[in-house]
Specification:
The protein has about 350 residues and is mainly alpha-helical. The protein has a single domain, classed as Orthogonal Bundle (ADP-ribosylglycohydrolase fold), CATH 1.10.4080. It has 15 helices and three strands. It has a three-stranded antiparallel β-sheet with strand order 1-3-2, with no helix packed on it. Helix 4 (about 125-135) runs parallel beside helix 14, helix 5 packs antiparallel against helix 6 (about 185-200) and helix 7 runs antiparallel to helix 8.
Length: about 350
């Protein structure tokens, strides 16, 4: 058994931006593993969830299986880029810029420092992104009752990058976010994020062009007003070659709500010459640093590939093996699964059972 790190549920429950969780905590084993819950109070007191998966041989694509036209390596770059942005921002998520500057100097945080007891620790942002990814790969059933709330926290937008690599990315992402974030801004910003990523993956010339095309396609939807206004403002800043600084970022907001997190991550990605530069900018402000770092990392990882991620970050990244495995499966599973009883199809079913 390959044990994944032990995840504290309070990381998922510590603030309101995550929205309302379903009453059924067991949402399915990550990578066909198992979940064990210890502790008494799932909604208040810290408890531990242990995730594990069978040490199966890596799936190999069938020689004659159809291939997706898009580059699977771009998916890997997108997911890993988001994860390193999350991990870099985790230690400073609740610090104001003055505190970040005092502790780390005028450049802010540029390397991993311990968070949650270890170097390279991811947060609820990457955890929920991985569970969203798994849900897209599995034909899952609904458990419990759908959540109903008016939240527009960034917990919807921060988890939906995998939707970009499946058909109808805007609708998939918006529907996923709407389960926990009922405010139109909360789920429509998520749809826009996935749609921009999808346009990049499908060959749009630049991040700015992909964003403009996505706004043209979806910006007129009812409820999109807040997101359209802030994303449009970021495009205007980029056109004027206005680069983000900690204080300029805070003029957009803290990133605790969906449209702000998307706009901050987008601006830092638009202005960056490298993934490292963009992610560092995205986490060094007095707001939701891990979420904005994750969003910038998703954009820049997709644009530049996983090779652009500094080795010093990748080497310490929590759950790197799980992220790499699930990124590969995004391209492999739709192309290879045939339900024909073959060894490859059985292995896929065991990894992502359809029940």
């Amino acid at each position: 058994m390959l044990a994944l790190e032990r995840i504290q549920p309070w990381m998922l429950l510590r603030d309101s931006r995550c929205g309302t969780l379903l009453r059924v905590l067991r949402v399915g084993p990550l990578l066909a593993g198992s979940i064990a819950v210890d502790g008494q109070d799932q909604l208040g007191n810290p408890a531990e969830i242990t995730l594990s998966r069978s040490d199966e041989a890596h799936l190999q694509p069938l020689d004659d299986a159809p291939r997706l036209k898009r580059d699977p390596a771009a998916v890997l770059g997108c997911l890993l880029g988001g994860a390193v942005g999350d991990a870099l921002g985790a230690p400073v998520e609740f610090l104001h810029w003055a505190g970040i500057e005092r502790q780390f100097g005028t450049r802010g945080i540029v390397d991993f420092v311990p968070a949650y007891g270890q170097l390279g620790a991811i947060t609820d942002d990457t955890q929920m992104m991985l569970f969203t990814d798994e849900g897209l790969l599995r034909a899952s059933r609904r458990l419990g009752e759908p959540a109903g709330n008016a939240s527009k926290g960034c917990g919807g937008v921060m988890r939906v990058a995998p939707c970009a690599f499946f058909p109808n990315p805007f609708d998939k992402a918006a529907d996923s976010a709407r389960l926990t974030h009922g405010h139109p801004t909360g789920y429509l910003a998520a749809g826009l994020f996935a749609d921009i990523l999808a346009r990049l993956w499908n060959g749009e010339d630049s991040l700015a062009a992909a964003t403009q095309a996505s706004l043209a396609a979806h910006g007129g939807r009812p409820g999109m007003e807040e997101t359209r206004r802030l994303v449009g403002h970021v495009l205007a800043l980029h056109a004027e070659d206005m680069r983000p600084t900690p204080r300029r970022i805070e003029q957009l907001g803290g990133g605790w709500v969906a449209e702000e997190a998307l706009a901050i991550g987008l601006w830092c990605a638009l202005s960056a010459d490298s993934l490292e530069e963009g992610v560092i900018r995205a986490v060094n402000h007095g707001g939701d640093s891990d979420s904005t770092g994750l969003i910038a990392g998703h954009f820049l990882g997709l644009l530049h590939g996983h090779e652009a991620i500094p080795a010093r970050w990748l080497d310490q990244l929590e759950l790197r093996d799980a992220i790499e495995r699930i990124a590969l499966d995004i391209s492999l599973v739709p192309a290879s699964y045939r339900n024909d009883g073959s060894e490859a199809s059985r292995a896929i079913w065991e990894r992502y059972p359809g029940w």
